[in-house]
Amino acid sequence: MANSKRTLFLKRRLRVRNKLRKVNVGRPRLSVYRSNKNLSVQLIDDVRGVTLASASTLEKDLGLVGKKNVEAAAKLGAVIAERARKAGVEEAYFDRGGYLYHGKVKALADAAREGGLKL
């Protein structure tokens, strides 16, 4: 039986995450979630199991509600870099999940790097 799109996505997500965990011990993980309408990003400390900072296009004060374009992703990257700095985090590793490093995901990562977060 052929693999479904969802199964392939989950396999890709686990493959990416497991490779990153082997290499980046001790650094927090910048995890991206992309739905059909919104983007969400979290800075997660896997050792303690806590979220250090998060940002989403659903936050009304950012003015990005319902926007899912590359510009919204870039603004979200800048916001998460600022919040990470406030949380005392200067470097993290970028967990793209099962998403391709292209378009919105790439724009978010580039903006976080420009904001001072080492990925």
UniProtKB/TrEMBL annotation:
GO molecular function: 5S rRNA binding; structural constituent of ribosome
Record's GO cellular component terms: cytosolic large ribosomal subunit
Domain of life from the UniProt record: Bacteria
InterPro entries attached to this UniProt entry: Ribosomal_L18, Ribosomal_uL18_bac-type, Ribosomal_uL18_bac/plant/anim
Stored CDD domains: Ribosomal_L18_L5e
Family per similarity comment: Belongs to the universal ribosomal protein uL18 family.
Function: This is one of the proteins that bind and probably mediate the attachment of the 5S RNA into the large ribosomal subunit, where it forms part of the central protuberance.
Subunit structure: Part of the 50S ribosomal subunit; part of the 5S rRNA/L5/L18/L25 subcomplex. Contacts the 5S and 23S rRNAs.
Protein name: Large ribosomal subunit protein uL18
Species this protein is from: Jhaorihella thermophila
